[in-house]
Design a protein that fits this description.
six-stranded mixed β-sheet, 10 strands, 20 helices, four-stranded antiparallel β-sheet, ABC transporter transmembrane region fold
């Protein structure tokens, strides 16, 4: 990660907090400068005292105290404000990530690449450090880099000053200077190797920690308090099994201890080498001082700055290793947020119609998943007439739900097109297009929030409308018995809430679809777990609630959709038959065979 990339990253992660870039520049400059300002002025004070000019020395001492105080205060203030802003910056980035995840194209959300990025964002943050940690490391990196630049300036000044001195022979100067340069090259090389070794070992430990955090997080947050898992844990006596899984955290801690020891040994080695180099630096500076090339004050100034150069170089390398590793995880935020939402998104507004005349049609549509050669749907042409009840029936895997996902633009057709009132749906603004649909999926989800907000899918709730749909779906008695009526919390993830049975949850999902009031309503097998009689009753009741809206009912049970105007039989990804119940029974094809087989099974 280059310096330019670091600056770009800081700019990206701190959008909305532009002051941070200024804080870094000013804080780092003052933080690095105050040590060198101290050295310069202090050297002048020493030299002035040696010349018995006490008045000037006092003036310089006052300048020293004031300048150091000002620089130190500015540096500390910048760092404090920086720390204050980077935490909300992290939350802002998380918010952008959440918004992106909830708006990304469905097919991308299902991809392994997207899921891996989200997992690494979640797990990597706890295993390796989050955005706050990375930004703090970057601040430290730039601070050490600034110290290095200042120190190099002092070193170059010293070499130039010595080179023009007459008191020391040119050969002697050359040898001593070359030796010092070689010493610094060797020191940089050793520091680089030590930092790389520590970084590599740290990366191994962090990756192990990532795995242990993932397992521990799954056990603690996803398994032991999940009521869906409780039955299997009890049935198969898996308590000890899950507890043993938590021992991965203990093993990871042992590796941290070992890593700490390794780091200490390597840094100790660097400290020894640094002290040897420091000894030579003092010898070099003292020789220059004894020859009269530099003053006594300069001895302290140059020696201190060169020692600082050594430590700041190590600081730069160590911080760079930290940044490099954490960035492998944190950069997933930037990549994920900047990834495109959809392959293509239109701009046309959807016509606002009080008569609900929205006609949707499939025109020779085929679809296969990316990377697959097998077509899920093949050459499907189908029109949904305005106000019509259409049933899509067929065996599991026939392609019914895939057809609906294409209609909702969760996927794009591989071939052919889908139109709304004669216009390809890809040309419409996606958010506007989605407003015409109310859908209850087989695997619908109700969130653990207040009931009225769950039904409204918003915190902006029309209370009268909520009460109306609750009455329509037959939940009034249940809701009146809840502690806070329509405002009652569902589930237990966000507090002590109300638990719903499968049938009750199903009614809430239907209420949510009715509340939206969209002109096109879809029921995609949300009752698959019910017996055929109960499912048929739900579908018929829902049909009464829909009114004159266009509606699609999906089921693999033929009896559930006898009331529909038209039944479309899908078999092997193709439309096999169309007609109403009586016509298809008389046709004595796939529908009749399936209907009679299922009827015989349930009446036997």
């Amino acid at each position: 990660m280059s310096i330019r990339e670091m600056l770009k990253f800081m700019g990206f992660q701190t959008k909305g907090y532009r002051i941070i870039n200024i804080l870094v520049f000013v804080g780092v400059s003052c933080g690095a400068a105050y040590a060198y300002v101290t050295s310069i002025v202090y050297a002048k004070v020493i030299d002035t005292l040696m010349m018995n000019n006490y008045e000037k020395a006092l003036t310089l001492a006052i300048i020293l105290v004031v300048s150091v105080l000002v620089l130190k205060v500015i540096s500390s203030l910048c760092r404090s404000v920086f720390d204050h802003y980077i935490t909300p910056s992290m939350y802002e980035t998380r918010k952008r990530t959440a918004r992106k995840a909830m708006n990304i194209e469905y097919c991308n959300m299902e991809s392994e690449d997207t899921l891996t990025k989200l997992r690494r964002i979640k797990v990597g943050e706890s295993a390796t450090g989050n955005i706050v940690t990375l930004l703090s490391y970057m601040y430290g990196f730039f601070l050490n880099l600034a110290k290095t630049v200042f120190a190099l300036g002092f070193l170059i000044t010293l070499i130039v000053k010595v080179s023009f001195a007459n008191e020391v022979g040119i050969v002697k100067i050359g040898i001593l200077t070359v030796l010092m340069v070689l010493l610094f090259v060797a020191l940089f090389y050793v520091s680089f190797r030590i930092s790389a070794a520590i970084g590599k070992r740290g990366e191994e430990v962090m990756r192990e920690n990532e795995k242990s955090n993932a397992v521990a997080g799954y056990v603690l947050d996803g398994a032991i308090d999940n009521k869906e898992f409780a039955k299997d844990i009890a049935l198969y006596d898996m308590a000890d099994y899950f507890i043993n899984k938590l021992w991965v955290m203990v093993k990871a801690f042992d590796k941290y201890v070992a890593y700490g020891g390794y780091t200490g040994r390597m840094q100790g080695l660097f400290a020894i080498i640094t002290q040897i180099a420091a000894g030579y630096v003092y010898i070099y500076v003292v020789i220059m001082a004894l020859s009269g090339t530099i003053t006594t004050g300069d001895v302290l100034m140059y020696a201190g700055s060169i020692i600082t150069l050594m430590t700041s170089i190590q600081g730069v390398l160590m911080r760079y290793q930290n940044i490099k590793y954490i960035n492998d995880y944190v950069k997933n935020y930037e990549e994920f947020i900047n990834s495109p939402n959809m392959d293509y998104d239109g701009t046309l507004p959807v016509e606002k119609r009080d008569d609900n005349k929205f006609e949707l049609a499939f025109k020779d549509v085929s679809f296969k998943y990316l990377g697959s050669e097998e077509y899920i749907l093949k050459n499907v042409s189908l029109k949904f007439n305005i106000g019509e009840r259409v049933a899509l029936v067929g065996l599991n895997g026939a392609g019914k739900t895939t057809l609906i996902k294409l209609l909702l633009r969760f996927y794009e057709p591989t071939e052919g097109e889908i139109t709304l009132n004669g216009i390809n749906i890809s040309k419409y603004d996606y958010d506007e297009y989605m407003t015409i649909f109310s859908v209850v999926f087989q695997d619908f989800n109700l969130f653990d929030f207040p009931l009225d907000e769950v039904i409204a899918a918003s915190t902006d709730v029309d209370s009268e409308r909520v009460r109306k749909v609750i009455d329509m779906v037959g939940l009034r008695k249940l809701v009146d018995e809840m502690p806070d009526k329509e405002h009652s919390l569902l589930g237990n993830e966000n507090g002590t809430g109300v638990g719903l049975s499968g049938g009750e949850a199903q009614k809430v999902a239907i209420a949510r679809a009715l509340y939206k009031g969209a002109p096109f309503v879809i029921l995609d097998e949300p009752t698959a777990a019910l017996d055929p009689v109960a499912e048929a009753e739900v579908y018929e009741n829902f049909d009464k609630l829909v009114g004159n809206k266009t509606s699609i009912y999906i089921s693999h049970r033929m009896s559930s959709c006898k009331f529909c105007d038209r039944i479309v039989v899908i078999d092997g990804g193709k439309i096999a038959e169309e007609g109403n119940h009586s016509e298809l029974i008389a046709h004595n094809g796939i529908y009749a065979k399936l209907y009679n087989t299922q009827a015989a099974y349930y009446t036997a």
